[in-house]
């Protein structure tokens, strides 16, 4: 039976999981575990969504380098598969792998764990929203320290640990303007990360879009709204700098894409003319950039004024910027970024 201080520690761990995902919160989780369970060393690891490597978020008695190196070796052992399958986190002293060999009779224990002075340990696989997101491992110098009750207590708090370890955000409709049919991706360092519960944004397949995305990142801006063709259909697209409470995925951009028709019945060419007008270009400059006659540009402006119900060029361009009626080129992005 669990004591009142163990239950209190588990409750505090649960509250930490709902707060900001910071290094301090992760470290505090391990301190709470030390109040509830025997441990002389512990590590909380997250799986990097880009590289697949295990990254230590917090450690007691484990340096970051040691913890990550041990995890890289551990995942190649039969014992790791045992951890993945078991409902209760298995212990060094009680459990065996598929061959019937106990962990402390294997090479990893003999060469990595026992020389460090540890006699027992327990490892749990952290899953969040049905995805494997990390590991938690506790070690102690005492033999036979992790009985069934101890392992059940660890299992109870592992969902909270998984929420802290998951670097991929929970994207809410309210915060990010998602509607039915929106597709969402996180893009960082050229890698595209899928967001649970949402389809991948089709625009991330477009090489020209990645040039625009790089320009957006370079501005240091907060948000950019635009219109973009994807597979022959138009999308409303929002680029939003991802500002997590986490120290991870800093610099990532949240890409939200929603199917749409071109607003106000604008043609693709009229949208391009409107975008250039919004940068302050004259009809003559637009004509030169698009290889059109100045009279043709003038006609496009007349059409888009009529379609948008605006009375002047200035009013039309203000509408375009306000509502994201833009199809900017990378060199135009800085003019439209919200800061």
TrEMBL record:
<dbReference type="GO" id="GO:0003677">
    <property type="term" value="F:DNA binding"/>
</dbReference>
<feature type="domain" description="HTH luxR-type">
    <location>
        <begin position="259"/>
        <end position="324"/>
    </location>
</feature>
<protein>
    <submittedName>
        <fullName>Response regulator transcription factor</fullName>
    </submittedName>
</protein>
<keyword id="KW-0804">Transcription</keyword>
<keyword id="KW-0238">DNA-binding</keyword>
<dbReference type="InterPro" id="IPR036388">
    <property type="entry name" value="WH-like_DNA-bd_sf"/>
</dbReference>
<dbReference type="Pfam" id="PF00196">
    <property type="entry name" value="GerE"/>
</dbReference>
<dbReference type="InterPro" id="IPR000792">
    <property type="entry name" value="Tscrpt_reg_LuxR_C"/>
</dbReference>
<dbReference type="InterPro" id="IPR016032">
    <property type="entry name" value="Sig_transdc_resp-reg_C-effctor"/>
</dbReference>
<dbReference type="InterPro" id="IPR029016">
    <property type="entry name" value="GAF-like_dom_sf"/>
</dbReference>
<dbReference type="GO" id="GO:0006355">
    <property type="term" value="P:regulation of DNA-templated transcription"/>
</dbReference>
<keyword id="KW-0805">Transcription regulation</keyword>
């Amino acid at each position: 039976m669990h004591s009142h201080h163990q239950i209190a520690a588990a409750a505090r761990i649960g509250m930490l999981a709902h707060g900001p995902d910071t290094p301090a919160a992760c470290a505090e989780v391990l301190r709470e575990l030390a109040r509830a369970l025997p441990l002389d060393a512990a590590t909380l690891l997250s799986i990097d969504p880009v590289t697949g490597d295990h990254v230590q978020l917090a450690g007691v008695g484990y340096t970051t380098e040691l913890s990550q190196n041990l995890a890289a070796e551990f995942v190649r052992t039969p014992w790791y598969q045992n951890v993945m399958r078991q409902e209760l986190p298995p212990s060094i002293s009680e459990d065996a792998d598929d061959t019937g060999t106990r962990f402390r009779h294997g090479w990893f224990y003999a060469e990595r764990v026992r020389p460090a002075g540890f006699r027992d340990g327990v490892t749990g696989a952290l899953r969040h929203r049905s995805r494997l997101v990390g590991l938690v491992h506790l070690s102690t110098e005492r033999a036979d320290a992790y009985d069934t009750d101890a392992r059940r207590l660890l299992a109870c708090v592992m969902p909270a640990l998984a929420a802290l370890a998951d670097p991929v955000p929970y994207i809410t409709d309210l915060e990010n303007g998602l509607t039915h049919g929106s597709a969402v991706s996180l893009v960082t360092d050229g890698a595209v990360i899928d967001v649970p519960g949402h389809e991948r944004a089709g625009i991330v397949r477009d090489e020209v879009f990645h040039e625009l995305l790089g320009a957006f990142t370079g501005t240091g801006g907060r948000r950019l709204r635009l219109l973009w063709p994807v597979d022959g259909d138009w999308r409303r697209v929002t680029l939003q700098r991802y500002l997590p409470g986490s120290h991870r995925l800093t610099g990532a951009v949240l890409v939200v894409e929603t199917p749409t028709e071109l607003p106000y019945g604008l043609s693709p060419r009229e949208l391009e003319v409107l975008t250039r007008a919004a940068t302050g270009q004259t009809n003559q400059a637009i004509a030169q950039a698009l290889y059109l006659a100045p009279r043709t540009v003038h006609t496009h402006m007349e059409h888009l004024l009529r379609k948008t119900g605006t009375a002047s060029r200035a009013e039309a361009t203000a509408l375009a910027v306000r509502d994201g009626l833009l199809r900017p080129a990378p060199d135009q992005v800085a003019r439209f970024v919200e800061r």
